[in-house]
Specification:
Strand order of the largest sheet: 3-2-1-4-5-8
CATH architecture of the largest domain: 3-Layer(aba) Sandwich
Number of domains: 2
CATH superfamily of the largest domain: Crotonobetainyl-coa:carnitine coa-transferase, domain 1
Strand content: 15-25%
Structural class: alpha/beta
Largest sheet: 6 strands, parallel
Oligomer: single chain
Number of strands: 13
Length: 386
């Protein structure tokens, strides 16, 4: 498909029986690219509509994940509504679902069966642990997968494991689904046939855990939890600054360490000191190294230290909180319409078109069932198919 003012996926019909985060993330990205996304909701709505009420009465999660979609309320256990959804799917290019294990198949929306009836259909099933194996039937939420996959064991301080503060398992699964769907769309353009995609939260996070797993299985030891430091690289972490706040530095190689010693610590000889020559030595002698860094940083405020680090070519950043992100000069925002009015959200990360700040406009976030009447009218009779 060629790029147009409507986006490269204009004309693609995506039907998603979705809830929570993972599937809505994938279909949100498809909608941003111009696809028509019909979101099927229960009468009570996607429960992610009600996690909070922070955005003028709307849920922050739902506003983020559901822009550009059409909402239709259906009861897929009802014969008439089930038949309506079957007619919609018959005309769809992509069918996505992340219901509880087995629920879609029991309702007559088994992905393999759908593709047999509609050979051009691309199906994407998103689950917690996949469709086979001893965990296949288990309920799975982001926090549970963070614990089961081991990511919580490498996150946090030496004293305590921690959940990652955003839903990385859900978001990772959504990204994996989005990428796989795009691959399938390209493949169908060549072959004329759709394909089945299966994505699980556990598989996605296990993939992200490849390096710690290889460290354990080939090096004999998994990386330790180090808080805002790094288990294998030093100095690489947050250090207090004299005026308050913390500056984060990241020294990747010995050239940078030498520049840091000379330009920031004021002692070029430290770069060849046996205690600090190479990452392993610096990690072994980290308390001594950190004391030297803190002593120098304590003589600076944030701006003077930032200027010195920038001049020396040292990678650095400020340890911001959410308020710091809100005021960040690099933060890009985009307007989206919601039932609560116009909301400024974080702009999508990919920039499209000419110019450094080129961006596609975002389509509105639907109210529950906002397009139900129109969709029932459009697909109310006839079959069609692909």
């Amino acid at each position: 498909m060629s790029e147009s003012a409507e986006g490269p996926l204009a004309g693609l019909l995506v039907v998603s029986v979705e809830q929570a985060v993972a599937a809505p993330f994938a279909t949100m990205r498809l909608a941003d690219a111009g696809a028509r996304v019909i979101k099927v909701e229960r009468a009570e709505g996607d429960f992610a509509r009600f996690y909070d009420r922070h955005v003028g009465g709307e849920c922050a999660w739902f506003v983020w994940l559901n822009r550009g979609k059409e909402s239709v309320v259906l009861d897929i256990k009802d014969a008439d509504d089930n038949a309506l959804l079957q007619r919609i799917v018959a005309r769809a290019d992509v069918f996505v679902q992340n219901l509880a294990p087995g629920a879609a198949a029991r309702a007559g929306f088994d992905s393999d069966a759908l593709r047999r009836r509609h050979p051009r259909l691309i199906t994407c099933d998103i689950s917690g642990y996949g469709e086979s194996g001893p965990y296949a039937a288990m309920k799975a939420y982001d926090f549970l997968i963070q614990c089961e996959s081991g990511i919580a064991s490498v996150t946090g301080t030496p004293e305590s494991a921690s959940r990652v503060g955003v839903s990385v398992c859900d978001i990772g699964a959504g990204l994996n689904a989005y990428g796989a769907i795009l691959e399938a769309v390209i493949g169908r353009a060549r072959t004329g046939r759709g394909t089945g995609i299966r994505v699980s939260l556990f598989d996605g996070m296990a993939d992200w855990m490849t390096v710690p797993l290889l460290h354990l299985e080939h090096g004999g030891k998994a990386p330790a939890r180090t808080g805002l430091s790094h288990a294998m690289i030093a100095p690489y972490g947050a250090y207090p600054v004299g005026c308050g706040g913390q500056m984060v530095i990241a020294i990747q190689n010995e050239r940078e360490w030498a520049r840091f010693c000379e330009a920031i610590l004021g002692d070029a000889a430290l770069s060849v000191d046996a205690r600090f020559a190479g990452h392993p030595a610096r990690l072994r002698n980290k308390p001594e190294m950190d004391a030297l860094i803190v002593a120098v940083f304590s003589r600076h405020d944030m701006e003077s230290l930032a200027a010195a680090l920038r001049e020396a070519g040292i990678a650095f950043g400020r340890l911001n909180d959410v308020a710091g992100l809100s005021a960040h000069p690099q933060l890009r925002r985009a307007a989206v319409e919601t039932a609560a009015g116009t909301v400024e959200i974080v702009a999508p990360p990919a920039r499209h078109g000419d110019g450094a700040d080129a961006a596609r406009p975002l389509r509105p976030v639907p109210a529950l069932g906002e397009q139900s009447e129109a969709i029932r009218g459009e697909f109310g009779s006839g079959s069609g198919g692909n």
